[in-house]
From TrEMBL:
One of its GO terms (molecular function) is NAD binding. Keywords: NAD, Oxidoreductase. Residues 6-314 form the D-isomer specific 2-hydroxyacid dehydrogenase catalytic domain. Residues 110-285 form the D-isomer specific 2-hydroxyacid dehydrogenase NAD-binding domain. Coiled coil: none annotated. It comes from Halomonas huangheensis. This is Hydroxyacid dehydrogenase. Belongs to the D-isomer specific 2-hydroxyacid dehydrogenase family. The keyword NAD applies.
């Protein structure tokens, strides 16, 4: 059965797009990810069944404007750009693609860590400017402590390499047991207050809660040792960016590597752009060809499986039957939504 699918980006990796074409779906795109009005307009005008969500915000008003919308399938893992409360109220299912880009993000995280420790971006800019200053500063990572906020698939991959470098790895994650942490050679601690003072390098690998205050604020940054490095390939909302600018400017932090920002694209007048000790990248940590293909296929299959499994759709006989294996795989990708009370309000 053909569906109308909206991709909140200008393109989709060919393997995912091919699945949609084979199912004869109508595929719509948002040509400019900064054009929120275009996304809102398409949702109002087209009978969209599913959204393949990249990084654009999908809010309550958008969902309400599209009564045909049944599922939002995240091209990735983080869903802070999706109003989950509104999805619950509108009975719209939300899915993600856990693990599809874990290797890519882990490798990128390590790249930012190495670049920050040895000031690679600064040296590159100086050589291009005609300078040849062989400063002997920077941080040797062997013997230093890496702190990980979140110890899922990405964090575990980063930890493996850090341990091989001779780093100590300390993690905070409420879903990880001390036994699991110990088996992987890392130390589990209880909360940021215990973690941050130990970290020569802090790397974030946890979700952001929509509307919540930044996890890493001025007080948290002050707990880091002088000369520490912070890496964020998770979600920009996790860090108070002005507090980070202050810590990088006054010398408390040595460097930062940022792939995500509170507002994307990063504002042209953001003070982060002016700092020599920050490496900035445009939310591409998980965007290798291999990872993009995995996420596209996963997001598309999640959306189609959900649509095919709806009672009226199944009864029509106009779509492939959904197997028990497909249902089980889909359930592993489901994003939990807030509970709706009898009054129509939601609770976490």
């Amino acid at each position: 059965m053909p569906y109308t699918v909206l991709v909140t980006a200008p393109s989709l990796a060919t393997p995912g797009l091919e699945i949609l074409r084979q199912r004869q779906c109508e595929v719509l795109f948002v040509s400019d990810i900064a054009d929120k009005a275009s996304l809102a307009h398409q949702l109002k005008q087209a009978p969209i069944d599913a959204i393949i969500s990249r990084t654009m915000t999908i809010d309550a008003e958008m969902m309400k404007s599209c009564p045909t919308l049944k599922v939002i399938s995240k091209h990735g893992v983080g869903v802070s750009n999706i109003d989950l409360h509104a999805a619950a109220q509108q009975n719209i299912a939300v899915f993600a693609t856990p693990g599809a880009n874990s290797q890519a993000v882990a490798e990128f995280t390590l790249g930012l860590m190495f670049a920050g420790a040895r000031h690679l971006a600064r040296f590159d800019r100086r050589v291009r400017a005609g300078l040849w200053q062989r400063d002997g500063d920077g941080m040797e990572l062997h013997g230093k402590t890496l702190g990980l906020v979140g110890f899922g698939q990405i964090g575990q991959r980063v930890a493996q390499v850090a341990l091989a470098l001779g780093m100590k790895v300390v993690v905070v994650d409420p879903w990880v047991s001390p036994g699991v942490a110990s088996a992987q050679g890392v130390t589990l601690v209880d909360g940021l207050q215990a973690l941050l003072p130990q970290c020569n390098v802090l790397s974030l690998h946890c979700p952001a809660q929509r509307g919540a205050p930044p996890l890493i604020n001025a007080q948290a940054l002050a707990l880091l040792p002088s000369g520490a490095i912070i890496i964020n390939t998770a979600r920009g909302e996790l860090i108070d960016e002005q507090a980070l600018v202050d810590a990088l400017t006054n010398g408390h932090l040595a460097a930062a590597g940022l792939d995500t920002f509170a507002s994307e694209p990063l504002d042209a007048d953001s003070p982060l752009r002016q700092l020599d000790n920050v490496l900035l990248t445009p939310h591409v940590a998980g965007s290798t060809p291999e990872a993009l293909a995995k996420m596209a296929c996963g997001a598309v299959n999640n959306a189609l499986t959900w649509l095919d499994s709806q009672p009226l759709t199944e009864a029509s006989g106009r779509c492939p039957p959904v197997t028990a294996e497909q249902r089980a795989r889909l359930e592993q990708c489901r994003v939990p939504l807030p509970t709706i009370s009898t009054t129509g309000e939601t609770s976490a």
